[in-house]
Every structure is written in C-alpha cells, then in structure tokens.
C-alpha cells in the first residue's frame, strides 16, 4: 500500500495552495519486501528524489512554525479579550460588602481531596477540588476578599486513596486562611475498586497517614466530624492521635455533630480481675466531648464501653439528636433512652429481631423524654416495635414516623397489639402530635386492628399531616378491610357522621398508599370520590351564595393517593377533575416506582412530593 502525500492544503481566504506539492510516488511495499538490491541507476534516481523531498519537508517545517506563531498570537488575542471583558464586567462595580455576600452563597467551597465521581462514568478518580483557592487567582481584589473570609476555608473533605503525592501543604493553606474559624472535617473511604488502607501497617509511612495526622492536630477546632469509611479500622484513628498532646487532654472541646459509619471494632484490654475495658483514644475522646449535641452512627456499641473499671455509659445530658442504624438488643435501646434525657430527635432502625425484648404481657416502666419532638422507629418485627412503644412516654412529640418490616401473613394479633401499644403511648403522652407516618407495606388491617387504628387517630387531635402505607397478603379466613381502608378512613374523617367529636379536625395533608391491584374493577372513581367528599366537607365553597363550610375544622388542602393499578381517565375520573377545579384546585396523575399517584391540591398551597415516604 503506497503512502502518497495528501492534497496540498489551501488558504481558506484566497483558495491558493500554501506550498507546491511534489508528484513523486511512494515506493511499492512489494519492492521493499523483495530481497533485491537497487541498481546504480535506482540509487542515483532515489537520491535525487530524496534531496527534493528533504527541501520540501524543510519548507513545510517553516510553514508549521509559522502556523504555531499564528496559533500563539490567536491565543494571546483571546486572552486579551477575556481580560478586557473582565475589565468592563459590571461585577467590578460591586462594593466589597456585596461581593462578600455573593461569595457566602458559593455552594461548595470545601477542600476536596481524594476520590471524585467522574462525570462520564460511575468510576471514581483521584482529584482535588479547591474552589476557594481558585477564586483567589482571579484578581488581587478577589484574593483579599476570599482570603479574609475564614468560613470559605473551614470545610475539609478527604477520601483515603493511597496518595502518591503529599497534599498536606495545600491542607495547611486552608488551615491558615481558616484562622480561628471552627472546622468541618469529613473523612470518607475509597470505593471497592480502589486499594484500601485497612490496617495500621498499610498506613505506616504513607502520605495518607501524614495527612490524617495533620487533620488530627486540628480536632480541637472541629465542630462537625463526618467519618464514612466502612473499612477504616478505629486503630488507625487511635494511631493518628498517638503522641499528640491537647490542652487539658480534651481532643474535641468544640465538637457538636458526629457522624460515624465505620468499623465498630477496637482493641479491648482485659485486666487481671477479668473486667474488660476500652483502650482506644479516639472513642475515649468522643466520650469526653463536652459540646456534643448530635450523633449519627451505625451501632450503639461505641457508646457503651469506656476505659473505666465498670464500663459505665457516659452521662450525655447534652445530646439532642441521635440516629442509630443498628441496635444489637432491646437493652441497648433502653440504655440509650435512659442516658440521653435531653433528646429532641431520635431515629432508630433495627434490621433483625431482638432476643431480649419484652413480651406482649410484660409491664414496662416507660422512660419520659420530655424534650423529644421527632421520633422515627424502623424495626423489623412487630414485637420489637411494641417493646419500643411501651418503653416511651413523649409529652412533647410532634412528628412520629413508624416503619415496619416483614410480618407473617394473617398475624392479626400482633397487628392489634402494636396498634394498641401505639394508642396507649399517645394517650400516656398527652400527645400534641402534628405529623404521623405509618409505613406498613407488609401489613393488612382486619376489623379488630381497624378499631385500634381508629383509636390512634382519635388520640391525635392536633394532627395536620397523615401518611398511611398499607400492603401485604392475608389468609382468606381473616376478615380483611385492606381494600376498603380508604372508605373506612373517609367515614372516620367525615363530618356528617354522628361522632361525639370530630376526628383529626386540624388535618391539612393526607397521603394514602394502598394495594388495589387485586380489587375487582378499577377503584379509581370510588376511592377518589370518597376522598373528595371529605375535602368538600372540610373546605369552604368558593360560591358566596352557597352554604359556608365548617369553621371548627381546618381545610384539607393536599391529598396524595398511590394505587397499584393505572388510573384511567374515563368519564368518572373526568368528573372528579371537574369537582377539583370547582374547588379552585389542581388534579394531577403521575407514575412513580411502579405505582400511579393522584395528587389533589386545593388553593394556592403547593405540595407534591411522591418520594416523601419511602
């Protein structure tokens, strides 16, 4: 195959050829492959061609050099234009106070070193993001403003990556500009496809350990610490703190928020008398943090061990927010609520059943959490939820979320007992509950359990937000009202029934998700019509000549209904839309997570969040 030169390039302006082109053909590959020597005539002719081609090559090199100068000139002109546009930019007329406010709204000024998510793929790559430092390169004026704004240098996120370069000097720049500003530090782990540093031996002598030790020296300035490294052994943190001295030996005097998602293991020391005690400087420092207010961690085991002879749980009266993803036992739950009396927000999850929880017949002395405003419980088994509910008295709770896992089909007794425990807890607490979320995807209500569910609602007269998620299968012998739950609820909320008092008179938002996939015929019109009847009862009509609505109840403004079947816009549904329009509202249908959602919004109050309850 011959390698003939391409056509001579032309000038785009005058269409003239830049340089003359030679017409010599390339040597044939077959000639080169033959074991033949050129003759004297071939040698003479080839040398003459080579001399002319070398001259032409030199002319092209000169042209390329000229083109490079043109490109350099073009680049300089573009830079001049950028600078002149910057000189004329209106932002230069802004006073320092306005620029300071603008920089305060920069979304992410953290120093981010380590694994960054690639925009084109799901794989991580090593990278460095230093937005604040980049802003200082714009101009001397900006450098003065940004450098003086300590809050733009006080957030540091580091992903362990086995760094090939020591980025500690960049970290020191941020620490210097942060001055005395409290720090927010994040330490995250590498992804599965990145070499992991899991032991002290792996860290020894690495840039990562040097970086971590530099961060550890700043722990006294840290107000928020976030550790998300499932493979980061606590001994590494213990090793990083070794040899460092702090004032009054308090490592975290300013720490207010701690989020820890890492290895819960640590070395345990056993003394001669057989008492096990904790020997771990990091967690000992956390135990003695005087300003700690909020904790988010995997397991409570970190909190129940101390380097003391008796492993006494610390008296953390200052804790106001606690979120635990994994509880080993009911004893841990009881320990948590007993030693944190100032809790305002508590979230507890339990993926497996407890072995030491109270039975249905046990009498438990409840713990009073008088400051708790928000409670979120997500156990796996109904009996675990029962143990939590009977252990609590919550006179100030306003937002309550309950999510249950698996349940044996047709286990109506446990359903009734759990709802009874919930009703008793609300009655015992003199509840001022304003928001209730019941997520029971594997549950089905029967007549007896519906009685207790009604009692739960009647114990919550201040409720403004109600979300109910039901589902699951039951045995045929059980008297099920699962598919009729909407009608039952609407009957309970109706103002026309002869109730001694109105149920949920302050209700403003209603969210229902029920399994209607096995219901004969499409339930669209029946369900929507029943709900809309309640909306009309509780809303004052727009017609001034019509009879005014009830003034002792709040208007039901936001309704969201999830169905297992597609909502068909037939004659009945169109009539529902007309009724909503007559009330001055909006009617919308969307599909989300294999379910069809109908949203009704009355008035100007906007509310549409299908993913609100997971």
TrEMBL record:
<dbReference type="InterPro" id="IPR032675">
    <property type="entry name" value="LRR_dom_sf"/>
</dbReference>
<protein>
    <recommendedName>
        <fullName>F-box domain-containing protein</fullName>
    </recommendedName>
</protein>
<feature type="coiled-coil region">
    <location>
        <begin position="43"/>
        <end position="70"/>
    </location>
</feature>
<keyword id="KW-0175">Coiled coil</keyword>
